[in-house]
Amino acid sequence: MRFTIRAGAALAVLTTTLAHAQTPAPKLPIDTFMQPPMFSGAQLSPDLSKVAVLVNRPGERTQLALTDLDEAGSTRMVAAVSKRDVLDVHWLTPTRLVFHVGQSNQLRDEPISNGLWLLDVPSGDVKPLIDDQFNQNPERLGSRIKAEIDRILPWEWSVVRVLDDGSEDIMVQKLQWLATGEVSHLVLARLNTRTGKLKLETENVPAGVRSWYVDRKGKAYACISYDGPNFGVHLFDEASNSWKLWRSGRRNIDEWPVPIARLAGGDLLVSAYDGDSKHDDIRVVRRLKTTDSGGAETLISIPGYDWKGEAILDPGTGRLLGLTYEADGADTAWFDRDLKVLQASIDKQLPSTVNRLLCRDCRNDRRLLVSATSDRQPEIFYLYDRSDSSLKLLFRSQPAVKPAEMAPREVLRIPARDGLDMPLQLTKPLGAAGPRPAVVLVHGGPWVRGNHWVWEGQAQFLANRGYLVIEPEFRGSTGYGARHENKGRRQWGQAMQDDLVDAARWAVAKGLADPKRICIAGASYGGYATLMGLIRDPDVFACGFQWAGVTGLDFLFSRSATDMGDLYQSYDLPLLVGAPVKDAQKLADHSPVKQAARLKRPLLMAYGAEDTRVAIKQGFAMKEALAAASYQGLEWIVYPNEGHGWRALETNRDFWGRVERFLERHIGGATPR
């Protein structure tokens, strides 16, 4: 069966459902938009009696709580780690679970990795499995794995998969290092969470493995290796009990099929480019026959969108039940008839949201969780009971958010000047009439899909303050096919920048944006684009605000200014951005720090002092270049305990308060209330 998904179908239904007369929303506190979710990451226990959920309470770290479904839904806190936030949770058995800890919503107390802890529910005992403290003097040569057996694993270890085979084991992997500090490969092992013993998976393993793919029973069925700029996709051959090279090529040049899951009978699901249709530049899901007959079958394709999601398998048989995906919005393509009917029944009860079923044994579990979201509704978790088809509300992630007060987010495609079909999300202030002051909000990356049809705090905050929010998926963004992505190669400050201008001018031409009151903004790459927008196109952008922004293309190749590795700097960046020697003049021409004298519009810049991705030296270099050019329009902020983006609510409260005042001064957009 092949699903060809028509993009926009699900959102059309929701848009119709949500349509109503819009009146201006009241001015809401910044905290409404920037506070972390009160509840997140809910997971149903294997025996369906409890729900584990992450809880954020004001002034506290993120903790782990359990809700007992058979005791009137009572909820109690069960785990908290000093100066750490609980990041996620995974059940091992009905009475034991593991959870990661790290820094997420508080000012950083110390630099840590993501540690792993174990909770025994009946006793309440909590113990660490993987340490979160960075070793300040790591032994980069040789292996220390033998010494790590039977004790807490150091931070170089991480979880590959929590198993579903009746054991309490998990699959873990360890970073191995070269003398240069670069990652050499990943060692795979099975960890017994009760005893702490490791069983290494080292037999006939390909060299240079950088990604492992493991089934629910802990068997590695595929891996991806690196050899310099070359990659190899290897499949495990059961007949010969050995690894076979399946596909190989060069990174960022050759097609790279990615394993998704191993199915019943040994067939493999992969994400690869579709060779069977006119949409041959998009990633689809294909079923690869591993029998002697060979061959492949395309299972799902979405014109204009690369597939990205998860496979849902029957735990007993390994049969493929469904595939999650994201087109204009998120959805699930069910291959199982009964689950398709169940999805339709739940969607009928919850017609205003996109509803994802969260289940282990989806065909047979009498209870399952439903995650419900929309552009105006932050995530809500419901409990669905098959016995009476009832839905019970469990947790609202953002209880302070009222959907009626939130702005609608519209998914569009607009033409760029060269005919490129550019995706774009538009967030319109409630009650807005006529051309509005606008913010072109540029996503970071830039090689990511930046926008999703969900409730998004930054866009909603700006819309609540009366601004039209324009979020273009400029060329170079991923998720929209290889052509869209590849058109962004070596186009920083050039065609990628043209797309942002074209998005602003499109909004003006449609009567949505006031041409005299458009600001540009973003973080990381979006910060770079903000600076270049003010330098290149001051006739379009009246002001700009950026945080954690790249200020010079030379900095991308400096180990002191970014955390990018040697291989990425020596091979990938010359392909994607430009070569530091051969293209030196081109890089300088499109580096804000080298073009600072051209910047005349008002600018707000903010950096985290502990940022390693875009080191604060990049911000200081731009600040000094602007001062040397006698520029007077800069507002400058440094947050001492923040990194690449803001963790703490107090930081977000301060920063977005500054943004609000900055915009009011320069494009005056607040809707009268």
From TrEMBL:
Record-given protein name: Peptidase S9 prolyl oligopeptidase catalytic domain-containing protein
Domain Peptidase S9 prolyl oligopeptidase catalytic: 458-668
InterPro entries to which the protein is assigned, alphabetical: AB_hydrolase_fold, Peptidase_S9_cat
Coiled coil location: none
SUPFAM superfamilies noted in UniProt: alpha/beta-Hydrolases, DPP6 N-terminal domain-like
Keywords from the named record: Hydrolase, Signal
GO molecular function terms attached to this record: serine-type endopeptidase activity
Keyword Hydrolase: yes
TM spans (from-to): none
KW Hydrolase (keyword) present: yes
Organism: Roseateles puraquae
Signal peptide residues on this chain, from the entry's feature table: 1-21
GO biological process, any: proteolysis
